[in-house]
Amino acid sequence: MTELDAGLVGARLAESGQISEPDGGGEIGRARRRKEDSRLLTGHTRWTDNLRQPGMLQVMFLRSPMAHARITRVDVSGARGLPGVVAAFSGRDFAGEQGSLPCAWPVSEDIVIPDHPPMAVSEVRYVGEAVACVIATDRYRAADALEAVEVDYEPLPAVMDMEEALAPGSPKVHEAGNKAFSVKITSGDVEAALRDAPVVIDRTYVQQRLIPSAMEPRAVLASTDGDSFTLWSSTQIPHVLRVMLAVTTGIPEHRLRVIAPDVGGGFGSKLQVTAEEVLCLLLTRRLGVPVKWTESRSEGNLTVHHGRDQIQHLTLAAEADGRVRGLRVELLSDMGAYLMLVTPGVPMLGASMYNGIYKMDAYEFGCTGVFTTKMPTDAYRGAGRPEATFAIERVMDELAAELGIDPVELRRRNWIRHEEFPYTTVSGLTYDSGNYEAATDRALALFGYDKLRAEQADRRDRGDPVQLGIGVSTYTEMCGLAPSRMLGMANYAAGGWEHGSVRMLPTGKVEVITGTSPHGQGHVTAWSQIVADTLGVPFDDVTVLHGDTAIAHKGMDTYGSRSLVIGGIAVLRACEKVKAKARGLAAHLLVCSPDDLEFAEGAFKVRGTGSGRTIQELAFAAFTAHDLPEGVEARLDSDATFDPDNYSFPHGTHLCAVEVDTETGMSRIRSYVAVDDVGRVINPMIVSGQVHGGIAQGVSQALFEEAVYDADGNLLTTTMADYLLPSAADLPDFTTDRTETPSTGNPLGVKGVGEAGTIAATPAVVNAIVDALRPYGVHDIQMPCTPERIWRALEGARS
Amino acid sequence: MPRVTITVDGVRHEEDVEPRLLLVHLLRERLGKTGTPVGCDTSNCGACTVLLDGRSVKSCSVLALQADGGDVVTIEGIGANGSMHPMQRAFHEEHALQCGYCTPGMVMAAIDLVRTDPDPSEEAIREGLEGNLCRCTGYCNIVRAVRRGAQDMGQAVRTP
Predict the structure, then answer these.
(1) B interface mutation test: which of A18, A36, A37, A672 has the most B CBs within 10 A?
(2) Alpha-carbon distance B46 to A71, whole Å?
(3) Secondary structure (3-state) at B97
(4) Four-way CATH pick for A497-642: 3.30.1330.60, 2.40.50.90, 3.30.365.10, 3.40.50.11810
(5) What whole-number distance in Å separates Cα of residue A98 and Cα of residue A91?
């Protein structure tokens, strides 16, 4: 226990991650069951594909089978006469009005943002790019009609490899060449740090391309009354989408309403302005009837933006005792064929995070974005930070191995100690709070680290064909995207604030409107808990509206683990304003000074007397307006926009034990322990759910998932039979726990949690596998660490 | 066009269908039973799972014609008198859903699993639900929910 207690200064050890019964007191911190569930559990859902409009037609797109080709002819006339077919169009039919899909993040001065027509007109640059569309009475008629569209292509060379793409003489994806941008960030003197360093670790890692794979395929429904337009889309970003669609299509913003109904997962993949959204709007404008498009899974694997796909070269200099002197990072980042909404920003979100939780004096980050003839990449859970965390956590393990130091001990020697916060890192970020000691000690205890190390030694001594590997990942990440000022400095086209409104209804119930756009995260429940505590109203008396620009008029939506730390705070602030108004009204009605009132359990009471008014009574008084103070309007509502000063920096320690069969290459996760510190917790049940799901995706990158293209640019993993997503049988139970070190960046002390598990888990698993194989001379396994790759690595090392 | 007679959630329907019409499209687009979603086109994800004559099937892989004369129960039909089925309640209590898209299929597959194994172990649940994918939960709470749901279903059987 002594060891465990030593690190706990400043961090409160949270309760176990298991769902616990409410413990009385306030709503914040209780494992409230979700208000969202009932509809989802009984099938009364509003997925976009469930929605129908009178006269609605079905859209289907014909997609390029070529990775790179000139379009010489598109003939849709064969489709037009078929039964049930209303219209058919090629890209040329929309060339004058479809505009170019937007990129909102020009990360450098030298960036090349190629024209990106929603439907290709003269050239295709990846397999799956839309070249024509048909509009029919139903999906079966539309599918038949696609068969009758004729397209002639003149093949051009595919460009599939980033290093080859940058070589002189490479075929070009775009006229301007294959380099999208390059950036370099330096802090301190990396050359000096490397010079004469007792240890230099030089490694290259490949972040394979991933397919985000939200369970709900995308769907879009667009309608118009001839004047205004409504677009329903399975999107994470109804507000951003509205602005971007207005700019792209020329439909005035005030005549465009965007609705994100029930949305079945996103993970960044629905943080996009898509060709299909633009084209459905243009089709409804042209045809005057509602049109719907629903993607098939195979279509989605081809055309939902992909994630990751980087080659990472790290050079780390250290002292003989393991203290890190400096780090150089050189990235190649595959943009795919075009720059979509935040494509070039993804590697930049990791630019300041390769130093992780460690102190060092010199840091250099360079990145080149490269065009290839593949589906564009963009945000996928973690976006830039999983890549950074993987690389530094892998390299720290390599350094530990090189020096013969236990990987946990090596981290201790380098990490920021809890008493050093706030701490400005070598890359210039200021981490507000954290306690790596406490989280790590808790994780080691839960994991039984020493016992597992002993078992590992025993298996090694015995030459057991099944070896045990132990993987460590001590991560932090920057999330809560983002302070508008910092986004401006990074040349992002928008801000990072969030908006919330709170209104007391005449009967004392509360209607909350949030600018966040949840798609599984449980905002309705968590925001209700915040509101219930702040206004002193029952949890069940709060409703939360979201995801419709006509209802939630202002918002920046949901991504980057931002919703609670920005949107939740906006709701909190709006509640405080409502409370301040209510206090003034109560003082007027009770004929006292506002200062004489104390607020408790939902009522203002005159100190020392029995008289008071509940907030519900005040809501009714504001509604009747029979007796309002001079100059006070008949309303008990308010709103607030919150813009944080800094990012949010959750952290934690994940430990993974993997058994590797050295004869077959099979690996099996035996135990997985995650102790995360996400600051103060509003709902521990939701937090552990986020961590579970995050870990699953991180584990899956390590072991299972990879989008594979062949040399001609054909995607080979177009179905869930080819792109391996783990089932319950492929994953273990995860042991999760928490420490709580409040954030100092917001009044609730909360930090983001949506991406933490994914960021932490991938290096924990790969470190474990490599740890198991190190005695055989294996120092790396390329992800996903399939049995075949493990077996080949062992064979290679043996021969 | 062939005519099929099919009972869905206790209601009998007669529909003229194209031979190629999938059961899930009959349910969703003709009968308005949109509680059953579609997650893939290769029968890998299981989101569209329903019970056909008491056994779970992936309704994207069954032709409407094959269900002729059949009795289909969807997620919309398992509750009784406005209250949820024990398995639905267990999913709620154990936080076994986030976005909820896989949930109808997961619940229907779980009910079928409990039919054949009334007291499934964690391993049996994980193996038994292998054909149903969830991208949100990491399955931990789904496994707990199915154990709890199985117990509650057993309780319901023992105390009529």
Answers:
(1) A37
(2) 38
(3) coil
(4) 3.30.365.10
(5) 9
Which residues, in sequence order, are CB contacts of A489 under 8 Å at separation 6+?
A: none
Q: How many CB atoms lie within 10 A of CB A621?
A: 21
Cα distances (Å, whole numbers) of residue B79 to A21, A33, A248, B33, B76: 25, 19, 46, 15, 7
Determine the Cα–Cα distance for residues A305 and B38; give it in Å rounded to an integer.
Answer: 20
This model of the complex carries an ipTM of: 0.97
Instruction: List CB contacts (< 8 A) between B99 and chain A.
Output: 40, 214-216, 263-265, 519-520
Alpha-carbon gap: B135 to the closest alpha carbon of chain A (Å): 6
**The whole model's pTM is what?**
0.96
Domain B3-77 is in which class? alpha beta
Which chain B residue is nearest to residue A294, measuring alpha carbons? B38
Task: Give the sign of the dihedral formed by CA A556, CA A558, CA A559, CA A563.
Answer: positive
Domain boundaries, chain B: 3-77, 86-158
Is 3.30.365.10 the CATH classification of the domain at A2-17+305-481+646-798? yes
Comparing alpha-carbon positions, the chain A residue that sits nearest to B18 is: A140
Tell me which chain B residue has its CA closest to the CA of residue A266: B99
What pLDDT, in 10s, does the model give residues A227-262?
999 999 999 999 999 999 999 999 999 999 999 999
Quick check: A727 and B132 CB within 8 A?
yes
Q: Which fold has domain A51-156+215-265+270-303?
A: Aldehyde Oxidoreductase; domain 3 (3.90.1170)
Are A654 and A760 spatial neighbours (Cβ–Cβ below 8 Å)? yes
Whether residues B101 and A50 touch (CB distance < 8 A) is answered with no
- Tell if the CB–CB gap between A693 and B40 is shorter than 8 Å: no
The answer to whether B137 faces chain A, any CB pair under 8 Å, is yes
Closest partner residue to B137 among A45, A521, A689, by Cβ? A689
Each residue's pLDDT tens digit, A110-131: 999 999 999 999 999 999 999 9
**Shortest alpha-carbon distance between residue B10 and chain A (Å):** 16
